[in-house]
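User: Hello, can you help with two protein structures?

Assistant: Certainly.
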Amino acid sequence: MTHFVSTYGLWVVAALVLLEAAGGPVVPGETAFVVAAALASQGHGDIVSIVAVTVAAAVAGTVSAYVVGRVWGRDLLSRWPWFERLTRPGLERAAGFFERHGAKALFLGRFVPFLRTTLGWMAGVARMPLRRFLVWSVAGTVTWACAIGAASYYLGRAVVDAVERDAAIGAVVVAALLAALAAMHVLRRRWQRA
């Protein structure tokens, strides 16, 4: 990934971040962004440009997913009667969820790897108002890009070495963080119900 990002630069970062934000769950958009920010600390690129391109690509991808979800999402979910029966309860819950917690979900969901790939189309299918969607999506994206970009930039060489040498360890750390986030979410839900 390091060689690929350093060779093709901002274009590959923009493309991968856009595809990930548009709903590509296996697209390494954040990884490309982290590598590009770390390489910038070594003089291979400008961190401000990298963060700006990442924000623009992530917002464009999320908005495109929102539009697809808003315009065609319900039709696609109701295309087959058996599928509609399966998805209708979830669709109603999603609409209620986005009405109550949509702003928090868009802002904080940007930091959760697999959740960020679904937020756009879920908000569109749930018919979240466009203005509210844009405000919170942009706010979450800018905060995420600045935080992740700054951390990667300042960790610099350590991040590049870790990605090149210890990809398996990095994957385990990411999996552990995801498990911790999921456990916190489950515990919080139980606490709210009690």
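That covers the first. Now for the second protein you mentioned:
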Amino acid sequence: MNDKFDKEAYHLHVPMGATPKDGPSAGTSLFAALMSIATNQPVAANLAMTGEITTLGEVISIGGVREKLTACKNHRVTRVILPLSNKKNVKKLPEEFKKGFTIFYVNNIDQLHNICFNTPAESTDYQHLRDLGVDIEIHDADSFMDDVLNHEQIQVPNLIEQLK
């Protein structure tokens, strides 16, 4: 890492935009992108994240958890970072919906950094993250979505032929 970058303090403030829903939830993504640029290291693959970051480096709650997980499912993203304070929102979701996800619940940017840069996408050993206090939920595979997205077993009938 750049010596100057490591010794300086940075603050990025993104004021609320014209659309009230835009903004705070992108804190974790902005942090990961800026760290990637500063360290010239890519963020781990197959990873989505959401969460507001305070000036003290705490990752705090966001809204729209179900919608954000739906977007992940639609784009085949299976590893997701969420604020620990949003665990209660995930708990309310049906078990069938949560299938296929590995969810990392974080409290701070140190945990976030370790998931993004020290945990390869293919890794299944998360002990170093648990040691940092990351709460991890590993849900069963989602064979239905795999079939739909990979078009392996589900056949879509030719509707035009059926209408003739």
